[in-house]
């Protein structure tokens, strides 16, 4: 970079941006670990407990955290807070879920949006093949309608605290 280019950059006021990649299917604990290890982030969360995160995001129910962060590569500048990044990812996910919830088919066995997100996560973990997801979803919906357990590996693995 020449001196002239450097002066133009300084004059423009542009700031360096850094990427933080929140990968689809990862747990909130993984996201928090990524935030903790990302450079130039201002860490404001006192700990990684879900209650702490829910309080920082001003959410009433900490159970509505897992699966509620939009996976993407989020760009941030130096001194952005961990909470600010989580808020952005959470708000985008809430918007997407609201849109899906409003357009959902009648008669689905989900009592609330959290059940919808949970089922979407289970379906995604059950098959990595996008073309199979409709069929897997249909099987699970039919099981729920007759009061049957899902009997799927992702639910057992998650319940045991393992990686999905």
UniProtKB/TrEMBL annotation:
Gene Ontology terms: biological process: cell wall organization
Organism domain of life: Bacteria
Keywords, in A-Z order: Cell membrane, Cell wall biogenesis/degradation, Lyase, Membrane, Transmembrane, Transmembrane helix
Pfam families per record: YceG (PF02618)
InterPro entries noted in UniProt: MLTG-like
Any one Gene Ontology molecular-function term assigned to this protein's record: lyase activity
Record protein name field: Aminodeoxychorismate lyase
Organism per entry: Citrobacter koseri
Gene: yceG_2
């Amino acid at each position: 970079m020449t001196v002239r280019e450097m002066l133009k950059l300084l004059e423009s006021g542009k700031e360096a941006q850094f990427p933080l990649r929140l990968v689809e299917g990862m747990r909130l604990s993984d996201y928090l670990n990524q935030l903790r290890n990302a450079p130039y982030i201002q860490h404001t969360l006192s700990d990684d407990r879900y209650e702490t995160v829910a309080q920082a995001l001003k959410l009433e129910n900490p159970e509505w955290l897992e699966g509620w962060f939009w996976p993407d590569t989020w760009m941030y500048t130096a001194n952005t807070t961990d909470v600010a990044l989580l808020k952005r990812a959470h708000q985008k996910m809430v918007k997407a879920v609201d849109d899906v919830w409003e357009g959902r088919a009648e008669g689905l066995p989900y009592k609330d949006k959290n059940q919808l997100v949970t089922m979407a996560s289970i379906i995604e973990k059950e098959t990595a093949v996008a073309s199979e997801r409709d069929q897997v979803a249909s099987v699970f919906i039919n099981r729920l309608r007759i009061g049957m357990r899902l009997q799927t590996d992702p639910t057992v693995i998650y319940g045991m605290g393992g990686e999905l």
